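Below is a filled-in request sheet from our internal design queue. Each sheet records the structural input a requester submitted and the sequence that came back. We keep these sheets so that new team members can see what a complete request looks like end to end.

REQUESTER: design group, bay 2
PRIORITY: normal
MODE: inverse folding
CHAIN LENGTH: 271
BACKBONE (tokenized):
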């Protein structure tokens, strides 16, 4: 058997000298990496050996949660990813902390691994799908009762394919008792303008830019909105270097590089 060969959970339990349910728990909580084939979980021999090594079990427990989540995401293991998120919430993490301290670092870790060439674009896509499903399940937890303090139109401009940062900011805006109108990624300039023109009690339009080289698209978006409504258009996201960069594109302000910063920027308009 080579280190890349895989075994089922019963055999894994025998090799570790623990009960089947213990191994199952290791898999569900992300301590032991596993892949699902139909109804069967398969564990790589190398992962099993690492867990069986003297002193390895406490060390495996110490693997940071974002890294474990990233691993689940790259393997396309939605149930395993959700188990890690649930585990974090069971330990007291708020939905916002799940995004800021777990999901966002995990996504950034996936990007670093892609940039380092250790995972492929296919893995990145697989991870994105799992992240999308996790965000879908998290969404209702951000809902607030009562009338929102105003609405915010947000999205990625034409040419931008990163929708996850937009969805994350939308949920955090909802948690701050604002109504997000999320256009997702690759939204045409006219769609921003049309949606803003029809929005009730609009506070701001947010344009989130993750991919580099979309300056012209951002300028067009801001111009299209300005022709229809008088509302501040704020620009942010990892591809916008600083406030000067945002202002050079015609924005009224910069939302920074964190989702919390984006929410704070809208809050400051309300204040
Ligand atoms: C998932 C992903 C994808 C997915 C997107 C799927 C989806 N449905 O969203 C896919 C596979 C499609 C993709 C495609 C590409 N990607 Co990509 N992708 C990522 C990855 C791994 C995660 C993105 C993410 O969601 N991050 C988590 C978010 C939440 O973190 P964040 O970006 O820091 O976001 C915060 C800020 O934006 C902030 N914020 C502040 N103000 C505001 C305001 C608003 C309105 C918003 C929305 C956000 C915001 O809030 C966010 C939350 O904290 C990143 C790695 C990374 N470091 O993020 C690479 C990354 C962004 N991708 C990258 C690249 C190069 C690409 C591609 C060009 C090539 C490729 N890798 O396939 C293409 C096409 C890009 C294009 N033209 O749009 C680079 C970008 C580098 C650059 N110089 O442009 C990164 C950084 C990977 C890397 N390390 O090199 N990607």
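RETURNED SEQUENCE:
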């Amino acid at each position: 058997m080579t280190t890349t060969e895989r075994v089922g959970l019963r055999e894994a339990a025998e090799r570790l000298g623990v009960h089947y349910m213990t191994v199952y728990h290791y898999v569900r909580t992300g301590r032991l990496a596993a892949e699902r084939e139909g109804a069967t979980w398969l564990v790589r021999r190398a992962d099993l050996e690492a867990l069986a090594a003297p002193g390895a079990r406490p060390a495996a427990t110490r693997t940071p949660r974002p890294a474990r989540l990233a691993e689940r995401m790259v393997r396309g293991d939605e149930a395993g990813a959700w188990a890690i998120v649930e585990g974090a919430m069971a330990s007291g993490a708020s939905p916002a902390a799940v995004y800021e301290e777990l999901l966002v670092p995990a996504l950034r870790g996936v990007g670093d691994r892609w940039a380092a060439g250790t995972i492929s674009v296919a893995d990145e896509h697989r991870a994105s799908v799992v992240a999308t499903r996790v965000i879908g399940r998290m969404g209702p937890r951000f809902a607030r009762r009562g009338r929102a303090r105003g609405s915010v139109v947000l999205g990625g401009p034409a040419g931008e394919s990163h929708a996850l940062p937009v969805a994350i900011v939308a949920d955090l805006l909802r948690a701050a008792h604002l109504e997000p109108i999320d256009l997702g990624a690759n939204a045409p300039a006219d769609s921003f303008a049309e949606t803003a023109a029809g929005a009730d009690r609009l506070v701001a339009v947010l344009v989130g830019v993750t991919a580099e080289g979309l300056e012209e698209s951002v300028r067009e978006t801001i111009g299209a909105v300005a022709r229809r409504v008088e509302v501040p258009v704020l620009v942010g996201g990892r591809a916008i270097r600083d406030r000067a960069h945002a202002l050079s594109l015609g924005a009224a302000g910069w939302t920074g590089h964190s989702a919390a910063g984006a929410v704070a920027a809208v809050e400051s308009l309300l204040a």
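SHEET NOTES:
- The pocket of cobalamin is lined by residues 104, 107-108, 110-112, 114-115, 121, 124-125, 128, 154, 159-166, 168-169, 206-208, 210-212, 236-239, 255-259, 261-262 (CB under 6 Å).
- The mean pLDDT is 91.
FILED BY: M.R.
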